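Supplementary Methods. Inverse-folding protocol.

Structures were first reduced to a discrete structure-token string of length 773. This string, shown here, constituted the complete conditioning input.
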């Protein structure tokens, strides 16, 4: 863990420039608006260590798979999150000398991410190799209001010289992906066009044929006064720029306003892209930077109104949660049902694809409570629409009869992952997709979803489980062999408890939903079963047989669920005995050593206890938590939040707080030494869960909200806002009470601990906090 950034409740602040931390800062200060986003690269040239990244949602490249030993069933391609044209660039030349912080003496440097209003601001003072001193201020944002655009206000002040300053705003499509498998370039130029105060470059992705027009428009002010400028276009392959030369005096301030737009063929006809981009640029330029920035602040204020979490008395914890909520909102707005939430969002290339089980297991609860119902529904429909491909994927592996295996990683439903122990074996992902359907219906009460879409997905998933298990004559039970559980530090294990448990749960839930839909809408049920050729009696019979006879490993001595067969054969060392210098294990140990060790990458058995807590008594959960927590290294960002929620449930408030801080400040403090690759966006929804479900104890029981709050020792109070079935409420937990404000015009029924309360419209109820025993 490092402390690169200053603690502030609404901002992330970096003071002083350390080139060694630049890539971490580029990730943390990333900007996005759901439609486009990018890393916090500098506008001016930078020859130091940097990862350039600008991304356009949904635009990807299928990079040909590269593996050592090709195995049948591998997908041909891995969908890469594609580095797209750089629209932020502004080359600066000071009397012929290029401004490049890597070659300057940096005399002062400050970067600040304003999360309240949604912009990035950078100030620096630098001395070039020939002694020219400049002061620069750059403000940049990706507009939430005009979500295909971004804007930059870049000011330079020559402090000890006068003369020619040349600014060259540009769009550069000649970009690469660092993670390209064959060092190929992924974009070809289609067209370019320059005019007096702007330019557009249209590029096409190889293979996928997406076209994206990236345009810019600019104007200049001298000491705050608009200045007419003559520009000189500069073009070359995949590049459009415009040179602006100004002869200025020492101490004068020159400001360049650069507006940019990214329009994709996913949303517009290819042949109109250039024209439409120009129109969009004209519109935002006409609005002007200040108006756009004011609109940006207002749009963010509206977002915060619905999903802010306020923590009183602990600025580091406050900054952490706001950073997580901010990044989630930057990544996915829910307005486009073709999009999803990539583990790195718009902050880096790593992981590729846009959709992992992370969406269903971690992100759905956040969007359910903080956005309109259609947002979570769209996330579910995304998978429904890809059901055909999930069935194809299972068929490729040898399954039949409409069994579906959803991909481990995907962009469009096709599997993109290609490591056999994960692609073929980390099949628990299917369970998370079923669980999200259950979670959505439990939260919203939208039973109709099950009849319209949910049941079809559930049957396909259950058919997969029914074929994936086999009968063991020796055990006289079904077993599930050759799987990888959520703990990826163990591969190809037999009878992973989590995977088998979620499989049984899926089968049970499918049977329940079959009964419900049959009862509520027999016609719909019959047409579904004939569409998918579901042999009701026979297939349900098989499901029931597996439910009652699937082997789930358990240790009688320790009275815990066993992560998988043979787990206790491992040498049982604990994380506390690992030298700090050995961590993170994934960076310090060989894979062989990791596989043979007892160390657990992320919640595995505990993930199951979190999902299905109502099926287990508190003592069972405690025994398993006490056993597995000391063996977990939390080297997946998805891990600490689950441990935090379970610790809170068990009343272990100090550990719950420790895990909370770890999950919420994971990227700000670079806990796992990997933030330079990008931020861990999907786990940020887990951070939200650890406050609302962990400290707030929020659950849905029998269609009603319930809370059992706890307050971490150092906090004065915390509050969160959620929406639930058309009601919006604010929950404030302080030292003595929980105060629930019903901010809607409907009566709200809630349970606090074990008692029910009716809260009238626009009123509030306070309930005393139960002390911890
Ligand atoms: C985790 C997976 C997760 C993936 C993307 C991996 O490190 O082990 O569970 O789906 O990251 O976040």
């Amino acid at each position: 863990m490092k402390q690169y950034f200053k603690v502030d409740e609404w901002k992330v602040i970096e003071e002083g420039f350390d080139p060694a931390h630049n890539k971490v800062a580029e990730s943390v200060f990333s900007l996005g608006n759901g439609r486009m986003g990018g890393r916090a690269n500098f506008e001016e040239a930078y020859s130091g260590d940097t990862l350039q990244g600008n991304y356009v949602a949904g635009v990807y490249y299928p990079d040909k798979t590269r593996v050592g030993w090709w195995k049948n069933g591998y997908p041909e391609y891995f969908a890469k999150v594609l580095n797209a044209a750089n629209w932020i660039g502004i080359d600066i030349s000071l009397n012929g000398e290029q401004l490049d912080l890597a070659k300057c003496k940096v005399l002062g440097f400050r970067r600040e991410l304003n999360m309240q209003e949604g912009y990035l601001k950078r100030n620096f003072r630098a001395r070039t190799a020939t002694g020219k001193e400049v002061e620069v201020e750059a403000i940049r944002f990706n507009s939430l209001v005009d979500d295909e655009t971004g804007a930059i206000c870049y000011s330079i002040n020559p402090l000890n010289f006068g003369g020619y300053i040349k600014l060259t705003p540009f769009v550069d499509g000649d970009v690469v992906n660092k993670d390209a498998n064959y060092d190929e370039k992924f974009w070809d130029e289609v067209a370019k066009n320059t005019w007096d105060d702007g330019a557009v470059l249209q590029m096409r992705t190889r293979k996928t044929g997406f076209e994206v027009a990236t345009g810019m428009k600019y104007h200049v002010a001298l000491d705050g006064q608009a200045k007419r400028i003559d520009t000189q276009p500069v073009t070359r392959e995949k590049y459009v720029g415009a040179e602006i030369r100004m002869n200025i005096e020492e101490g004068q301030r020159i400001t360049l306003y650069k507006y940019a737009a990214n329009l994709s063929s996913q949303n517009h006809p290819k042949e109109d892209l250039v024209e439409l981009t120009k129109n969009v640029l004209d519109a935002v330029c006409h609005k002007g930077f200040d108006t756009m920035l004011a609109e940006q602040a207002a749009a963010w204020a509206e977002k915060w109104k619905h999903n802010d979490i306020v923590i009183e008395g602990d600025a580091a914890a406050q900054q952490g949660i706001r950073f997580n909520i901010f990044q989630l909102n930057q990544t996915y707005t829910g307005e486009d049902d073709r999009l999803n939430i990539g583990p790195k969002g718009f902050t880096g290339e790593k992981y590729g694809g846009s959709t992992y089980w992370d969406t269903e297991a971690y992100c759905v609860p956040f969007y359910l409570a903080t956005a309109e119902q259609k947002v979570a529904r769209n996330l579910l429909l995304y998978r429904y629409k890809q059901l055909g491909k999930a069935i194809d994927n299972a068929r490729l592996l040898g399954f039949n009869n409409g069994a579906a295996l959803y991909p481990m990683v995907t962009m469009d439903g096709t599997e993109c992952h290609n490591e056999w122990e994960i692609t073929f074996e980390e099949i628990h992902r299917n369970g998370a997709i079923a669980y999200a359907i259950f979670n959505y219906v439990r939260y919203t009460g939208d039973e109709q979803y099950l009849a319209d879409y949910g049941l079809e997905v559930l049957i396909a998933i259950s058919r997969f489980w029914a074929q994936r298990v086999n009968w063991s004559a020796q055990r006289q039970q079904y077993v599930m062999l050759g799987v990888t559980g959520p703990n990826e530090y163990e591969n190809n294990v037999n009878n992973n408890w989590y995977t088998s448990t979620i499989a049984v749960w899926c089968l049970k839930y499918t049977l329940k939903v079959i009964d419900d839909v049959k009862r509520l809408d027999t016609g719909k049920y019959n047409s579904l079963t004939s569409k998918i050729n579901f042999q009701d009696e026979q297939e349900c019979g098989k499901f029931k047989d597996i439910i009652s006879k699937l082997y789930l490993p358990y240790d009688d001595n320790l009275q815990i669920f066993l992560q998988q067969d043979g787990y206790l054969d491992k040498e049982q060392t604990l994380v506390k005995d690992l030298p700090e210098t050995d961590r993170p294990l994934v960076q310090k140990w060989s894979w062989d050593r990791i596989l043979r060790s007892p160390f657990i990458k992320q919640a595995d058995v505990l993930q199951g206890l979190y999902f299905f807590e109502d099926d287990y008594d508190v003592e069972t959960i405690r025994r398993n938590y006490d056993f597995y927590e000391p063996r977990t290294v939390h080297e997946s960002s998805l891990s600490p939040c689950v441990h935090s929620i379970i610790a809170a449930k068990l009343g272990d408030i100090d550990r719950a707080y420790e895990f909370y801080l770890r999950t919420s400040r994971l990227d700000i403090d670079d806990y796992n030494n990997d933030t330079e690759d990008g931020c861990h966006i999907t786990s940020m929804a887990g951070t939200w869960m650890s406050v609302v479900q962990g400290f707030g104890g929020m659950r849905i029981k029998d269609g009603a909200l319930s809370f059992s709050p706890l307050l971490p020792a150092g906090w004065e109070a915390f509050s969160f806002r959620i929406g639930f079935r058309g009601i919006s409420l604010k929950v404030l937990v302080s030292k003595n009470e929980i105060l629930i404000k019903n901010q809607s015009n409907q009566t709200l029924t809630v349970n606090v601990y074990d008692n029910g309360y009716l809260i009238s419209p626009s009123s509030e109820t306070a309930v005393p906090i139960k002390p911890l025993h």
